[in-house]
Amino acid sequence: MPGTARQVGVTGARTVTISFAGYNRAWAAWIADRLERRGVTVYQQRWDPPVEIPLEESLRDLRLSHGTVMVILSDWYFQLGPRSHDEWNRALRAEVAPEPDRFAAVCVTTSALPGATSVFGAADLTNVGADEAERRLLARLGLPADPLPDAAEARPGPRYPADTPQVWGGVPRRNIRFTGREELLSQAYSALQDSGRGAGVVTLHGMSGVGKTQLAAEYVYRFGSEYDVVWWVPADRRALYRQKLAELAPELGLSTGAEYGERLRAVRDSLRRGDPHAHWLLILDGADEPDQIWDLVPTGPGHVLITSRNPEWSEHNSHLVEVPVYTREESVAFIRRRAARLTLPEADQLADALEDLPLLLDQTAGWLNDSDMSVEEYIELLEGGIDQDVVKVSADFPLAFQTAWSILLNKLKDTVPESVDLLRLCSFFAPGSIPVRLLKDMPPGELPEQVSGLMNDPLLWNKAIGQLRQYSVVRLESHEAADDAASSGESLYMHRMVHQIVGHDMTERDRQEFIGVVRRALAAADPGRPTEPSHWPTYAEITPHLKWADVLKSTDPAVQNLVLNCLRYMYVSGEYRAGIKLGERAVKAWQELLGENHPRIWDVSYHYANLLRAVGDYAGTEAIERAAVDHLREERGAQDLEHLRAAAGLAADLRGLGRYDEAWEMSGWVLSGYRELLGDQDARTLAAQNNLAVTLRLLGRYPEALDLDGRTLESRRTLLPRRHSWTLDSEIHYSTDMRLLGRYDEAMSLQNQSVQVHRNVMGPDNPQTLRAEFNLALCHYRSGERTKAATLFTRVLERAERVLGEAAPLTMMFAAGQSCFAREHASIDQARAISEKAVAAYADMLGEEHPFAAGTRGNHALILRNVGEREQAHALVEEALAAMTRAVGENHPWTLGCAINASALRNLVGDTESAAALTDSVVTRATEILGRTHPLTLSARIAHAADLRGLRERRKAEKTEGEALEDLVSTLGPQHVHTVSARSRNRPYWDFEPLVI
């Protein structure tokens, strides 16, 4: 780093001090490395002379350095200050020419430099490869260029600066006017270098407009040569972040399928392992909501650099580097570089007026340089102000921003008026990355007259974009393309400060015209199949723009269909929170726009209810769906498709509320209606058939559920692609049915294969993937593969808590399973903590009398038993048994399971007769309901044998136990964990398992 000395290898015969501009740090590091390998002692000294000190004095100080002074010549070296070429020529002639042997130089630029730099006799390193550059460097210093020993050459070192990392993507163009920030760059570099493996995360945080993104980009260009992979990802939206990170897969040479979920999983795994590249740098730009993406930040041997307005990243193992406004010196240097005609006092005046905010300085100085207006006149405009009611800008921004922007807008109107219209059109997209290609793809007749010519005239387009870039209003996002290709404008980046103010003086006529265009462009981009994972990246790109295009006020059917499809996408992809916000707004807006009974209201209510149901608001969704059912039945009759859809939703609500008999009756009626209207093989009929099977499973009628799920799976495999999400969902259901019936090997075989496909197709964090993995964990657990089960239980629960939240129904279901496993095979303290949260959460969400609340209380009683709290455990399990009996009846498998646990606690507190009577009753009922060899029946028989031994009825106990053991061996095998446990006379227990509704 600047100002540090290093000596590597053997003691050298020479000493060199490298003087370099911070911009050229990569060159300094590479030159130092090549010299040190040959025994040269190297000092690195960053050149940044204070502007108030004469240049001659700074050069005299440089002569005090050790050994030969090696200057890295670039336009940046001479811009620092900034000073004119005449000043440099005078200083070089006075201070360098008299002692030319003290200096040497290399040139790394093709730009024009002060004429007197010829005194350095610089070696030209431009446009040559690493080997030739090293030869020229050594020749300039009079060092031999003999080959190095193998050991010295093999040592890793900095990459040759003219060579880019092997993988490079998404990085903005380098800002050739970047100024200062040396201390911040050093802080970020040191923090990343000093971090341990998997902990290299630094967040650049500060308010809007301070240059966080520019600082991150400069970090990449200065230190990028130290990495094999540099990948820049927009991180303002979770779905877009996932999509862009997945695009790294082919660049890493990873063999994956086409689905982006599969690519994302492969990328994260590759980065974690450091294979094929351990030296990687990932930049997450605009990550203002840590809770949305922190779980997706890769770990491993590489580094992560984040830009954010949110300092809460410190809570997620990130080192914070605060980015303030410029120092006054930085402001003045930047302004004079941006507007060469301004004097030092003028630059200071302007910086003071604009409060040293980099974005505002950039925009203002840029056009002041092209304007005849004096700084004093400009400041008078700022101080005079404009009517502050004209525009509303965040309190985070300086007050001067309002006036400064108005002045800049007038300048743009005078030069390329089309550029202002383009800006206004872009203001109806979300700030940040704006997909202008959607506009360019529209037919000319669909575009407003002001921008139609702009979109279809490449020369005019390039001129407008060039003007906007010149004033730092936008930047191009097509970073890797050549300049002419980049100008085609796949997307533009508009800072949120610019976005916030650009449309405020627009006429209402223009506003309506522009917003209509954006709405139509978004609708035209709708793939039309939101349940297809391959289309999720497109929806991820579209959905953030819905709010800014105010699509909910549109009466265009295509735009309304887009809203519905986006809601469906958010549901199937697991973006529940964002979907609920959109759904709530859509219901309210469309009721006002279209009327409370318009057909669109029932469409949007259906999707909104699905999203609410996904987060457990069953009472709320029941009210929504019941209103729809009642209205549609009265208006259209019972045999109407929309009515059947609403009734199916109501049945799901009843399942969530624990009213399974009502749900079964309604689900059966819905299935009959679909079969009559559409036939057996329509997708809607199969969905209704699936839902009826879900209800049967909740009722404990596992054989019937298995039969129905088997037929649904077979039909979906025939009618849909094998990797379709509905087909995969049927595989989860069918595997669950087999597991609940004790067919563990078959269940695990199907679910294991299905999990792999889920991860590839749906993505590792999709709720359906998490369900598949959880069922596989249960399959492993029931089969005795505890190590595999432990890994999956932990991973699924952690991801669900991050992605869905602790209070989500799926998360609570996973927590119940993890707690049961931890109770028997991990930490009892962990089991208790998780269980207490699950018990409380189910009671809060569903009420004390819901079967899920009763079941998890029964599970918790077993934990209390294990920690010695017998009386409390006994009271709790009896309460759970009574509540479960009231909720689902005495013959439901859940009630029978609770009874097995209650009998164990009765035995433990000395109530042996009652325990034996209970297990005797359970054996009778379980045999009738589930069959003699069902695992729950076998557990009841083993438990009853133990109770008989407690009553000293040894012969009856031995007969009962012997018959049960024979059935265990024939059903599960002699070495199955249940068989071995029963043979060892360990009293069986039963775990309540909440099921998907």
Would you give an account of this structure?
The chain has 997 residues and is an alpha/beta fold. It has 46 helices and 15 strands. The chain has a six-stranded mixed β-sheet with strand order 1-3-2-4-5-6. α36 packs parallel to α38 (809-825). The longest helix is centred in the middle third of the chain and has 19 residues, at 576-594. It starts with a strand and ends in a 14-residue tail after the last helix. The model is unreliable at 1-13, 385-399 and 479-489 (pLDDT under 50).
Short description:
With 997 residues, this protein is an alpha/beta fold. The protein is built from 46 helices and 15 strands.
Unreliable stretches (pLDDT < 50, length at least 5) are 1-13, 385-399, 479-489
Number of strands: 15
Cα-to-Cα separation, first versus last residue: 59 Å
Mean pLDDT: 87
Structural class: alpha/beta
Which percent range describes the beta-strand content? 5-15%
Count of individual helical segments: 46
Reported for the largest beta sheet, the result is: 6 strands, mixed
Helix content: 55-70%
Shape: globular
Main sheet strand line-up: 1-3-2-4-5-6
Query: What's the gyration radius in Å?
Result: 35 Å
Outline the fold blueprint:
Blueprint (H helix, E strand, L loop, with lengths): L4 E2 L8 E6 L4 H12 L4 E6 L8 H8 L5 E6 L1 H5 L5 H11 L7 E5 L15 E2 L5 H12 L8 H5 L12 E3 L12 H13 L6 E5 L6 H12 L5 E6 L3 H9 L1 H4 L8 H14 L6 E6 L4 H4 L9 E6 L10 E4 L5 H11 L5 H10 L4 H13 L4 H10 L15 H16 L1 H10 L5 E3 L2 H4 L8 H8 L1 H13 L3 E3 L6 H4 L5 E3 L1 H7 L5 H17 L11 H7 L14 H17 L2 H19 L4 H16 L3 H19 L4 H16 L3 H19 L4 H16 L3 H18 L5 H16 L3 H18 L5 H16 L3 H18 L5 H17 L2 H19 L4 H16 L3 H19 L4 H16 L3 H19 L4 H16 L3 H19 L4 H7 L14
Parallel strand pairs: 2-3, 2-4, 4-5, 5-6, 7-9, 8-11, 8-12, 9-10, 10-11
Antiparallel strand pairs: 1-3, 13-15, 14-15
Helix pairs in contact: 2-4, 7-8, 9-11, 9-25, 13-14, 13-15, 14-16, 15-17, 17-18, 18-21, 20-21, 24-26, 26-27, 26-28, 27-28, 28-29, 28-30, 29-30, 30-31, 31-32, 32-33, 33-34, 34-35, 34-36, 35-36, 36-37, 36-38, 37-38, 38-39, 39-40, 40-41, 40-42, 41-42, 42-43, 42-44, 43-44, 44-45, 45-46
